[in-house]
Design brief:
The protein has 225 residues and is of the alpha/beta class. It has a domain of 157 residues: 3-Layer(aba) Sandwich (Rossmann fold). Helix content is 46%, strand content 13%. The chain contains eight helices and six strands. A four-stranded parallel beta sheet has the order 3-4-5-6, with helices on both faces. A two-stranded parallel ribbon has the order 1-2. Strand 1, helix 2 and strand 2 form a beta-alpha-beta unit. The protein is globular. One of its GO terms (molecular function) is 3-oxoacyl-[acyl-carrier-protein] reductase (NADPH) activity. Its EC number is 1.1.1.100. Belongs to the short-chain dehydrogenases/reductases (SDR) family. Pfam families: adh_short_C2. It is an enzyme of class 1 (oxidoreductase).
């Protein structure tokens, strides 16, 4: 997503919690292609770290126009077997992290800004073992809808993108080839989404053509549900 936004002409912040090397590689690729990027470490579950990340963006680029909230984890287990620490971590990153970033964005974005959160199309599927993940993302959609109303008068849009099964590490980790193949057939287009598919939707919402869309969840899932 960050590379697509850089290609669109945005100066970007590559945020990471762990994996400084990978984040720097992304920033170096953007720079090699003529874009501008800085790398900032921040745990989105920590409000002070989130504020420092926004400080770094403002100091480097003079202001903030678009925030894409795509940090997340996927812990899967039946609800009755779900461990307390896994529940707390899911809430901390998927929900509190999104809250921390959207709250800071709501304070700092310039007029005409865009806030784009990541949800999931799994919400509509009621898949066993996905209960806690679905709960966190349903809450994200609620925050998105309300914040869109609260931004009245500032010309700031707030939306969510809800991918279906997408070929990312988050989705692929821990799944057998047979399960991945079965889930890829859920869409009538009979394939997994690719990161570029989701980046294109984010690009639309961040760009001039997405300016009349706010308070919505765009389900980018190949017609899965």
């Amino acid at each position: 997503m960050v590379q697509r936004l850089a290609c669109d002409g945005f100066k970007v912040v590559v945020n990471y919690s762990n994996g400084a090397g990978s984040a720097q590689e992304v920033a170096d690729t953007i720079a090699a292609e003529g874009g501008e990027a800085i790398v900032v470490q921040a745990d989105v579950a920590d409000p002070a770290a989130v504020a420092a990340m926004f400080d770094a963006a403002e100091q480097s680029f003079g202001g903030i126009d678009v925030v894409v909230n795509n940090a997340g984890i996927m812990r899967l287990a039946p609800i009755v077997d779900f461990a307390d620490d896994a529940f707390d971590q899911s809430i901390a990153i998927n929900l509190k992290g999104t809250f921390n970033v959207t709250r800071e964005a709501g304070k700092r974005l310039r007029s005409g800004g865009r806030i784009i959160n990541l949800s999931t199309s799994v919400i509509g599927m009621r898949l066993p073992t996905y209960g806690v993940y679905i709960a966190t993302k349903a809450a994200v959609e609620g925050l998105t809808q309300v914040l869109a109303q609260e931004m009245r008068g500032r010309n700031i849009t707030v939306n969510a993108v809800a991918p279906g099964p997408t070929a990312t590490d988050l989705f692929l980790e821990g799944k057998s080839p047979e399960l991945i193949d079965r889930m890829s057939k859920m869409s009538p287009l009979e394939r997994l989404g690719q990161p570029e598919d989701i980046a294109s939707v984010v690009s639309f919402l961040a760009g001039p053509d997405g300016g009349w869309v706010s308070g919505q969840t765009l389900r980018a899932n190949g017609g899965m549900c």
